Amino acid sequence: MSNEVLSQNEIDALLSALSTGEMDANELRKEEEARKVKIYDFKRALRFSKDQIRSITRIHENFARLLTTYFSAQLRTYVHLSVASVDQLPYEEFIRSISKMTVLNMFEMQPLQGRVLMEVNPNIAYAMMDRLLGGLGTSMNKIDRLTEIETTIISRLFERSLESYQEAWSTVIDIEPSMVEFEVNSQFLQMVSPNETVVVISLNTNVGDSSGMINLCIPQIVLEPIIPKLSGHYFMQTDRKEPEQKELQALEEQLKNAHVPVVAELGSSSITVEEFLSLQTGDVIPLKKELDEPLSLKIGHVHKFFAQPGKIKRKLAVQIIDHDKRGEING
């Protein structure tokens, strides 16, 4: 179906033909129905449903937020990342769409098989490197003349960013991403076959006054084992497994060894600030408790027991005589 946009003159002419009877609206409908044939390109096989693409988008929106925090802390300047698009296309088409000379970080996502590519616009990479070296974040493009020190600085910066990628995927699968290769020439890069379907996530990136794109290329073979987990209903499920008996016993043992403060309260009273300021040695403050009334025993700050005072050898002590029902309600 053609996607041509009609001019205003063409629209007026079409409306005029319909109103004068030169063109039949029913014939237009039939022609439109006859055109409803969707062309399927086997070279651009769509391996992921819209629902799965939305899940991948949510994961990388979280990744963009985590990266914003990470780069802002590392570079100490304004950094903002957001998801621009998520597409599935042949690997060959992705390689043709990026610059021949660019920053390419290839990493693995164990236990998933295969490799993932993070392509960074050179302007962004140089602005980040300039900030790390104490500059203002000026961007330049001399990607074909990277020194060994510059290569190390850039690769380590993005290698540490993989911790954010691990956290972003934690709602779906526990991965351990690790950097395996750094390259600047996309022509030397061959992860999968040219016709292999890949998911390309493009992140709009702003570093100070510099802007550019960071592209993540994930081959279909990497995501294949977890495709069922990318469906929307998976995120809605409460995937909480019941704790095992050993875990419960370990938790119980830890709770048994926990220290809690125990306070035996003799009583309480209230006085004015003026009375407090005029207190002298030998003054007596009456407590709101009778002599034969049991003490309140607090666990933490909650009344739990009634007790009576006493002594054990030469130390003061209390003996529990009953539960405090109010403490059970409050506790």
UniProtKB/TrEMBL annotation:
Domain Flagellar motor switch protein FliN-like C-terminal: 253-322
Main location, first listed in the record: membrane
Domain of life of the source: Bacteria
InterPro entries: CheC-like_sf (IPR028976), Flag_FliM (IPR001689), FliN-like_C (IPR001543), SpoA-like_sf (IPR036429)
Keyword Metal-binding included in the entry's annotation: no
Membrane topology: Peripheral membrane protein
Keyword Membrane in record: yes
Keywords: Bacterial flagellum, Cell membrane, Cell projection, Chemotaxis, Cilium, Flagellar rotation, Flagellum, Membrane
Compartment(s) of residence: Cell membrane; Bacterial flagellum basal body
Pfam short name (any one): FliM
PANTHER family membership: FLAGELLAR MOTOR SWITCH PROTEIN FLIM (PTHR30034), YOP PROTEINS TRANSLOCATION PROTEIN Q (PTHR30034:SF6)
Its biological purpose: One of the proteins that forms a switch complex that is proposed to be located at the base of the basal body. This complex interacts with chemotaxis proteins (such as CheY) in addition to contacting components of the motor that determine the direction of flagellar rotation.
Similarity-based family: Belongs to the FliM family.
Protein name: Flagellar motor switch protein FliM
Protein's organism: Bacillus carboniphilus
